[in-house]
């Protein structure tokens, strides 16, 4: 074995680490399913659409709390996208020197927080549409529709970025959101080969 390589045990997960805890993963997939159901399956404004919206808002509330008290990579303090972090990340990307990260990259964190804000806006405007005070108020309905279209656009961008980053870093990021595990930092593809 070459110096500096990591010996692999019989368990292939020996060269991986847990990054995404069950709360983060469950939140992610509840949002995916909820958005798909409410955009393309359930009739807008009807009972199942509203219930699904409330489930998404409840998941969002739990995730916001978990962003404060949760595991390392779940905490906002681990990845909050400050202007300085974003500029450094974009500069590194432009120079082809962006390192692989275990948690969110600054641009990934910006995407996540933007999606969360839009989900909160969808929940708020959806709830408002059910109130007598806002029943039939056009701007509330228009804003709800605009936010729904924003979710679609950002979801497409999010999926594209996950695919591109998976190829660039040779790591299946969607699968990592299923298993919670990613390749440990410092483990290269050569280290994983026998």
From TrEMBL:
GO terms for cellular component: plasma membrane. Residues 19-180 form the Cytochrome b561 bacterial/Ni-hydrogenase domain. Gene3D superfamilies: Transmembrane di-heme cytochromes, Chain C (1.20.950.20). The chain crosses the membrane at residues 23-41, 47-66, 107-131, 143-164. It is a multi-pass membrane protein. Its main location: membrane. It is found in: Cell membrane. It holds the Pfam family Ni_hydr_CYTB. One of its GO terms (molecular function) is electron transfer activity. Keywords: Cell membrane, Membrane, Transmembrane, Transmembrane helix. GO terms for biological process: respiratory electron transport chain. This is Cytochrome B561.
């Amino acid at each position: 074995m070459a110096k500096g390589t990591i010996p692999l045990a019989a368990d292939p997960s020996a060269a991986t680490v847990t990054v995404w805890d069950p709360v983060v993963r469950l939140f992610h997939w509840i949002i995916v399913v909820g958005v798909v159901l409410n955009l393309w399956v359930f009739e807008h404004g009807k009972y199942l659409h509203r219930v699904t919206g409330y489930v998404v808002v409840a998941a969002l509330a739990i995730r916001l709390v978990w962003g404060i008290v949760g595991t390392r990579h779940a905490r906002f303090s681990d990845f909050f996208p400050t202007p300085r972090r974003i500029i450094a990340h974009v500069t590194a990307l432009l120079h082809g020197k962006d390192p692989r990260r275990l948690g969110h990259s600054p641009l990934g964190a910006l995407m996540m927080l933007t999606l969360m804000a839009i989900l909160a806006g969808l929940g708020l405007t959806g709830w408002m549409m059910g109130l007598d005070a806002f029943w039939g108020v056009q701007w509330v309905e228009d804003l709800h529709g605009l936010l729904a279209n924003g979710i679609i656009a950002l979801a497409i961008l999010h999926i594209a970025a996950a695919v591109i980053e998976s190829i660039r870093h040779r790591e299946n990021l969607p699968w990592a959101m299923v298993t919670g595990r990613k390749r440990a930092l410092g483990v290269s593809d050569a280290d994983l080969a026998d």
